[in-house]
């Protein structure tokens, strides 16, 4: 802890000096790196475990427009790679240690076209910056990650079969006779619409409520009072089960989804621990609006 406190002090001095020398002229209170990333540290964690290339990181990530309109927020786990270009989002993670929180402004166009390999959403102008807020929850070396996964998978080896039993009991108890899709997803339509069908590149606004098979809710856009909007077909936007269902629906349609864990939060559960491993979940989904975009079939594989 003393070491960390010393680091805090040094980092504070460093940030202060940095702010004096590299103060952002675009975003008050932010500094700017030589590669053009505007950054501001929000909170320091208590760990000295700095993120490095090759590490696996778990982070809460949110994306907002240059005017701070939120269009994505979620927890993601992935392996850090060498930044492919100056100002890449990878640089943001490499500036942080485990537990740190920070805010960044990066160029939007290279983020979508090079990092996400998709088209720039129509609600962002080509020269705009976008805001990225990151809380780095965990940093693991590749060896640590593999060891954790091996131990975890060994421990829960039988959970997959247990999930199948629980899911079958639920389907039988609810007298649900809808056949699953080829992937194993159950889609139970609540209505039909002649609105536009969702296609890759469309900006889609949805409302959803997620709950466990026992009826307990774990997430709801309606309770938050904020629909979720995203560009369909982009990486890391929604779980695979929602991705598949949305691609089969039209604007105005509602459906109940029964999503096995391999299409939801998998063998690990979600990163905040609310949804355990090998847990089937239910989503009540509504396609509120579909704004047609530019198709990019390569993203919808």
UniProtKB/TrEMBL annotation:
Assigned keywords, A-Z: Isomerase, Rotamase, Signal
Cross-referenced SUPFAM superfamilies: FKBP-like
Pfam families in the record: FKBP_C
Catalytic activities: [protein]-peptidylproline (omega=180) = [protein]-peptidylproline (omega=0)
InterPro entries to which the protein is assigned, alphabetical: PPIase_dom_sf, PPIase_FKBP_dom
EC annotation from Swiss-Prot or TrEMBL: 5.2.1.8
Residue span(s) of domain PPIase FKBP-type: 201-291
Superkingdom to which the source organism belongs: Bacteria
Gene3D superfamilies per UniProt: 3.10.50.40
Position of the signal peptide: 1-19
PANTHER family with a match to the protein in the record: 39 KDA FK506-BINDING NUCLEAR PROTEIN, FKBP-TYPE PEPTIDYL-PROLYL CIS-TRANS ISOMERASE FKPA
Family: Belongs to the FKBP-type PPIase family.
Name of the molecule in the record: Peptidyl-prolyl cis-trans isomerase
High-level lineage: Bacteria, Pseudomonadati, Bacteroidota, Bacteroidia, Bacteroidales
């Amino acid at each position: 802890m003393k070491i960390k406190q010393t680091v805090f002090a040094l980092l504070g001095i460093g940030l202060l000096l940095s702010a004096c020398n590299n103060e952002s002229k675009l975003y008050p209170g932010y500094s700017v790196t030589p590669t053009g990333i505007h950054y501001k540290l929000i909170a320091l964690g208590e760990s000295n475990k700095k993120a490095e290339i090759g590490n696996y990181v778990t982070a809460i990530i949110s994306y907002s427009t240059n005017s701070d309109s939120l269009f994505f927020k979620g927890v993601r786990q992935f392996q850090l790679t060498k930044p492919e270009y100056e100002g890449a989002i990878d640089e943001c993670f490499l500036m942080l240690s485990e537990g740190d929180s920070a805010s960044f402004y990066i160029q939007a166009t290279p983020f979508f076209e090079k990092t996400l390999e998709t088209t720039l959403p129509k609600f962002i102008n080509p020269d705009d910056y976008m805001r990225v807020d990151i809380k780095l929850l965990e940093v693991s070396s590749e060896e640590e990650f593999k060891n954790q996964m091996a131990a975890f998978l060994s421990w829960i080896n039988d959970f997959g079969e247990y999930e199948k039993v629980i899911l079958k009991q639920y389907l039988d108890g609810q007298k649900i006779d809808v056949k699953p899709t080829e992937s194993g997803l159950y889609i139970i339509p609540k209505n039909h619409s002649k609105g536009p069908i969702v296609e890759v590149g469309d900006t889609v606004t949805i409302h959803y409520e997620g709950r466990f098979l026992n009826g307990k809710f774990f997430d709801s856009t309606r309770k938050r009072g904020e629909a979720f909007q995203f560009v369909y077909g982009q990486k890391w936007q929604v779980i695979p089960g929602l991705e598949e269902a949305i691609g089969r629906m039209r604007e105005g349609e509602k459906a109940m989804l029964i999503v096995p864990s391999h299409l939801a939060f998998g063998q690990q559960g979600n990163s905040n621990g609310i949804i355990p491993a090998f847990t089937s979940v239910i989503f009540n989904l509504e396609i509120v609006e579909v704004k047609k975009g530019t198709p990019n079939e390569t993203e919808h594989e």
